[in-house]
């Protein structure tokens, strides 16, 4: 079997899908994307597939990962690793379909029958975000994450801090102690403010504080972790096991949130998760993306003991109305019940992409960029 062709489809709201074709008719799908840098990743995928993969045996997943990563003198980083990730998804999808097994069975077999998922909460007003949390709790979700702040100056006022804490407290009150609540600083908080803000959140019994600092300041994570009882998390902007290594050796985090679409795909995420297990670090994969990426992330989660929860942004509670699940032939592919998604049993990634619908959606203009925020003085703020 050989790889003979590929296609890329940009689809709303901001996703890029890859279709890899073989001479035996077996097809694999992947989701290579950096939100806001779609065309950059499209170019990288094209270079990698045309330069290294066409004519190759798709079943050599580990060899291809090494070749696509190691053959370039300049390697790593968000663009190349996200391109590699989508290719890796598709190769594993082909491999699973070839052997008639889910990818997680090829990776050692499942260690659980269902996996808890969390719901992201948006909104600024405490009453509104609390109502949203309660509504999602009633829909069956048992875990939530929300952003802590919007624009946040390097040194902020007590009133701004109080408002941010009030939003989190409103969510905690809305769902009581029956649910997990995580908070994402999103890298918007400076080092002078981060430790104090985490301290203010301690009474709310959070499951973690995510990205208390930018990844550029990973050497300071341990200092925050040493000063709080709240588990510290990060990982969505780390792109390989090499990026995570120092976090583990410094005992800087209790939870990591790698993204299967940015961390080099299933092959690399599996290695990162295994490294984390050796340091007793829990894994809650990041995935605010489409159903292909979600399916790829689940394959790692179901064969990894220390993956305890999975992000989703697909409206799993109502697949019939979910616009994002329409990319699948069966929008109800992911069985959701009482906050959990059931183990996928289909071959490969366990999904069937509705190619006709994908082609229809790909006619739209997809050109999403993240907002550029500014502080009151006109300087650029972190998004």
TrEMBL record:
EC number per UniProt: 4.2.1.6
InterPro entries from the UniProt entry: DgoD-like, Enolase-like_C_sf, Enolase-like_N, Enolase_C-like, Galactonate_deHydtase, Mandel_Rmase/mucon_lact_enz_CS, Mandelate_racemase_C, Mandelate_racemase_N_dom
Matching NCBIfam families: PRK14017.1
UniProt-listed Pfam families: MR_MLE_C (PF13378), MR_MLE_N (PF02746)
Transcription recorded as keyword: no
SUPFAM superfamilies assigned: Enolase C-terminal domain-like, Enolase N-terminal domain-like
Source organism, top-level taxon: Archaea
GO terms, biological process: amino acid catabolic process; D-galactonate catabolic process
Entry keyword set: Lyase, Magnesium, Metal-binding
Magnesium in keyword set: yes
Protein name (Swiss-Prot/TrEMBL): Galactonate dehydratase
Enzyme class, first EC level, given as a word: lyase
Gene Ontology molecular-function annotations: galactonate dehydratase activity; metal ion binding
Domain Mandelate racemase/muconate lactonizing enzyme C-terminal: 126-231
């Amino acid at each position: 079997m050989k790889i003979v062709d590929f296609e890329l489809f940009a689809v709303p709201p901001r996703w890029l899908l890859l279709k890899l074709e073989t001479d035996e008719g077996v097809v694999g799908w992947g989701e290579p994307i950096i939100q806001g840098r779609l065309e950059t990743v499209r170019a990288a995928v094209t270079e990698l597939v045309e330069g290294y993969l066409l004519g190759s045996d798709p079943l050599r997943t580990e060899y291809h990962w090494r070749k696509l990563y190691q053959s370039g003198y300049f390697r790593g980083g968000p663009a190349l690793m996200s391109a590699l990730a989508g290719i890796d998804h598709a190769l594993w999808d082909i491999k699973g379909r070839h052997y008639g097994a889910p990818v997680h069975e090829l990776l050692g077999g499942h260690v659980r029958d269902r996996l808890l998922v969390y719901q992201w909460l948006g909104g600024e007003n405490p009453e509104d975000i609390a109502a949203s949390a309660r509504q999602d709790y009633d829909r069956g979700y048992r875990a939530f994450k929300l952003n802590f702040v919007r624009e946040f100056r390097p040194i902020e006022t007590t009133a701004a801090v109080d408002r941010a804490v009030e939003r989190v407290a409103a969510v905690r009150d809305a769902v009581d102690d029956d649910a997990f609540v995580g908070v994402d600083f999103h890298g918007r908080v400076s080092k002078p403010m981060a430790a104090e803000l985490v301290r203010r959140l301690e009474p709310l019994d959070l499951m973690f504080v995510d990205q208390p600092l930018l990844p550029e300041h990973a050497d300071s994570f341990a200092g925050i972790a040493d000063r709080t009882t709240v588990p510290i998390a990060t990982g969505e902007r780390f792109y390989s096991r090499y990026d995570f290594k120092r976090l583990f050796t410094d005992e800087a985090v209790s939870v990591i949130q790698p993204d299967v679409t940015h961390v080099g795909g299933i092959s690399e995420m599996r290695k990162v998760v295994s490294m984390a297990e050796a340091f007793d670090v829990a894994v809650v994969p990041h995935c605010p993306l489409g159903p292909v990426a979600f399916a790829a992330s689940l394959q790692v989660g179901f064969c990894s003991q220390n993956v305890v929860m999975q992000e989703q942004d697909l409206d799993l509670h109502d697949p019939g109305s979910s616009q994002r699940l329409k990319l699948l032939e069966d929008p109800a592919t992911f069985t959701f019940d009482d906050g959990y998604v059931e183990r996928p049993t289909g071959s490969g990634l366990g999904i069937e992409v509705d190619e006709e619908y994908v082609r229809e959606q790909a006619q739209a203009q997809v050109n999403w960029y993240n907002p550029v925020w500014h502080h009151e003085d006109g300087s650029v703020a972190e998004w």
